[in-house]
Amino acid sequence: MGSLTKYVSNDRPEFAVYIEDDDRVCYAYLLMEDKIVGDIWLYNSAPTPSKPEWYSKENLPFLNPTEFVKENLEPFDASTPVEVTWDFGEETIAKIFLSKRLIAQVTEGSCPGWSSLVTKDGPLALKL
Questions:
Q1: Left if phi > 0, otherwise alpha if psi is -120 to 50, otherwise beta: which for 100?
Q2: Structural domain spans, the chain
């Protein structure tokens, strides 16, 4: 069964991060007033494919293939120590931490955002 967790900014509640794991792949979505304004791949729940799947829309949401994955996390559950922090400077930045380790960040318009879990820039995540 998939999971969906919402992290709402206390300072600006019109902003939230949804982390969704559909038992195949996990993404984080930056929302502004319930509209997706940024996204980032977090991990594959299913086995990591050797070849990209983004050539066919029927594979959405896409798994990240081996050539891009530096580290694949264990799937999140209710006890996973995830924290989202917010920076509302010149642009809105949501930073996603796992056990106090920065794993991803996403801004308005970043599709994709940045990840410390990839080896190189790709269509699902840019290298952080």
A1: left
A2: 3-127
* Residues 107 and 96 sit within 8 Å (Cβ to Cβ): no
Q: What is the pLDDT of residues 56-73, one digit of tens each?
A: 999 999 999 999 999 999
Give the number of other Cβ atoms within 10 Å of residue 99's Cβ. Answer: 9
Give the position of tokens 């994955």.
69
Candidates 73, 65, 67; CA nearest to 28 is 73
7-22 pLDDT per residue, tens: 999 999 999 999 999 9
Quick check: 115 and 41 in contact, CB under 8 A? yes
Instruction: Return the residue matching tokens 């996390």.
Output: 73
Task: Answer whether 0.90 is exceeded by the pTM.
Answer: yes
